[in-house]
Each structure stands twice: as structure tokens, then as C-alpha cells.
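> Could you send the Aminopeptidase N prediction when you get a chance?

Sure thing. Input:
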Amino acid sequence: MHRRLIVPGVLAASLLLTVPASAADHSPGSAGIGDPYYPASGNGGYDVSHYDLRLAYQPGSDLLEGTATLIAAAEQDLSRFNLDFGLKVSEVRVNGKKARFETSGSHELEVTPAAPLAKGSPFTVVVRYADKPSEVKIDGYTAWARTPDGGIAAQEPESAAWWYPSNDHPLDKATYDVSVSVPDGTQAISNGVLTSQSSQLGRTRFNWRSDKPQATYLTTLAIGKFDITRDTTADGLPIVNAYSKDLGANAGAARASVERTGEVAEWLSDQFGPYPFNAVGGYVPNVTSGFALETQTRPFYSPKQFAKGANTSVVVHELAHQWYGDSVSVNGWKDIWLNEGFASYAEWLWSEKEGEGTARELADYTYAQYPADDPFWTVRPGDPGPDNQFDAAVYDRGALAIQALREKVGDDDFFAILKGWPAAHAYGNAKIADFVNYAEKISGEPLSQLFDTWLYQPSKPDAAGARSAGISTRGASELPRPKSWTKIRAAHAGHRD
Ligand SMILES: [Zn+2]
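Output:
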């Protein structure tokens, strides 16, 4: 996963002079939402409830033109506020009136409304823009993947700044209407349900709606020439999958994996409770990257995920995130284990159900893979730091921590916790400490030492620690290799690209 340098926004104190005297008590919203891993991510002083994105894209030139309308509310008396955005802006209006705007930091758009905003008041922001996202570098990088027939926005922890202005942090989730005009014969895919589609004068407009709170990095846009399959689950949930027309040798394996989305979502609902969103699906564009991402309702899969054949493990992983990561999102990026530990453990549960190796066998084998002096054990999944946010330890040791919990509390309490947690924090945000408290409440067991051992110590849990987690201390060569091991490896390898 890409990570970037941190350049906090610069406070333009001189702007305060332009605020009318009657607004002396108003102050600028902060340039970051307060996440120590990414101080410039998100912004302070307001909360967005809805994004309406009306876009037009030219695949030949990569020109993206847009009008973004944000429905927000002030959380303090605001003289000015920031949006996170990298593209060229031509106009900003707040509550219908032209607003002053300027750029600062690595991706800050500072907006000064004509009139200050009172705490608690709703407001509407309209931003007009046009640019070529593949040419927009933020800290030397673009998250926009241009393809031979279009472009894709799917990255973690940030991708929004290359296609719409936002409060770019999982703490500020919102609903979305995404409307995209493309030349006839090209498709535009986003999250949720396709509410309508119409053609006129050689262009087709696709209107997508995602009607439950959604984090900015989980909002995706895929433009290109796709084959689209549609179905409904047994519960009546619409399934929309999309495959680039030029996946080459990976085309069959991609379909053989992603077409099982409905089946996997149904099984996951048995593990984690009712599916939280209005649609499900996945898409495989013709990108050159290797990773997959849990974009809400419609995960993104790189074709390379299927280079060695069908891989249901990666589908299980990304769909598990719909509960663990998407509905219940991190409070700060240090809480990444709540996403990746559980999505990885879901692959172990699927393996167990498929008769390809139990979670305990996979835990034994995983523990044996890494000798005590391997740097793997120095990364603490409970607070890995921004440079190691997507390290193997967050996934593998993260799943071991969950197996240790299962051994400690027993299957009845364990599966009650797995199902109860997404309901307890549905559509919200949570910290690892919240999970530990919840698991203690359900199981009645003190668990802080267990989680300290598996999530927070910078060393390999010793033989006693392993035994107390039901994990074998035999070497990898003495253990049978679980049948699912190779597929699970392949699914995880992509995440670490
Ligand atoms: Zn994941």
C-alpha cells in the first residue's frame, strides 16, 4: 500500500483580518482531523453528511470535470474551513454565495465563506473543478490509476483528493450520489445501486447511490469498458459485478472468484450478522497494480489477484471488510487491526468451512512461519505506526490474536462477539480498546493481558503464550500445510503491494 509524507497544512493567519468584526469569535477549522498517523488527513470544525458528485470524464485525455455539492454542518463557529483536494478548482460557493479559496499544504483547499458559519448551522458547499487526475501529484504520487480505456480511484488510506473534494478521514462518513457522464460504450462504476442510466448525444450518464454512511477512501470510481453481471441474493440484495473487457488470461479466474460474491456474502451474514448495505458486488479493472481493496458495497480487485487461478479467499477478505472496516470503521488509522485482523481471520473461517484447514491449523502454521528473531514480531498490530500500517504482522499476527481470543473464550462467546460487534457499532467508528471492552463484556473474562501479548508486545509470544492461545509450538516442517495456505498467501501478498 502507498503511504505518503506528512505535510501539515499551513495556517494562513493573515486571512483572519478579512473576517468581519462581528465574527471575531469565529475561527478557522483545523487543517487536519487529529489523526497522529496522518496529521493532514481530514479537517476540523465541520461534519459532512452527504456528497453529490456530478462528473464528466474523457477517457482519451483523462480530463475529469466535476461539480461537487457537500451538505455539512458546522461544529464550531467557523470563519474558514478546509477541504482535502488536489485538482484545479474554478469556483467555490458556500450557501449559494461565492467564497474565497486558496490552496496550502500538500492537499488543502482553504475556503473562506462570504459570511462566517455559526456552530450547529447546516451549510452547503459547491465546488467546480476540472483537471487530469493522473497528472496531479500529491507528495509525488497519484492514487488515480489511468487504464487503456479509462481511470480508477481505489486506494488506502486516501484516494478522494484525486477526484472529489472532501473531509478525507474515516471519522467523517457520509452518504453519496455519484453521477458520471462518459462516452457511449464506456461504463462508470461506483458504490451502491445504479439508480438510472441514460444516453444522449453520444454520452451515457450513470447514476449511483450509496445510502449508508461511507468513508471517503471507500468511495470508488471506475471508468472503462466493462462486462457487467447483475443478480440478486436470496435476500433480494442487488449484486453488480464488473470485469474489464481486456483481462487477458486472468479473465476466467477473475469471474470464477468474484461471481461467488453472493454466496460469500450470504455465508458471511451467518458469521457477522445482516449485511449492512444496499448492494454488493465487485469489480476487476485492467490495472497493473496487485492489491485488492474493500471499497464499500463493491470491492476493487487487481487482475493479478487471479494470476494463479481462482481465489475465493480474497473475495472473503474484502467482503468481510463490509462489516469490519466499512460499517464499523477505524476511529484513527492506528486501529487498522479492527479491519485487517478480522478480514484475515474470515479467510481462516472460510477455509475451515471448506474443509481446507481449520483456523487452529492455520494459526499453528502462521505462528511457525516466523522465527522469534524475524522483524515480523517487532511490528505491533495494535499500533503499527503509519509506515507499517499494512505490514504482514497486521494481517497474520492480527489473525493470531483473534484465534487466541477464540481459544480463551470458547466458540459460543467467540461467535457471539463476532456477530455482536458489527451491530454494536454499525455505521460508526471504533477503537481497539472498545473491542477489548466489548469482548470482555460478552465473555465475562479479563482479556487485557491476552491482547497485550498478541497486539502490543514487540516480540514473538513465547511457548507459554502460544500454548495459552491453543497454538502449537512445533516448527513449520513438522506441521501439515493447510490446503488453503497458498490462496490465503496470494490474497495477502496483494495487500502488501
Ligand atoms: Zn484487508
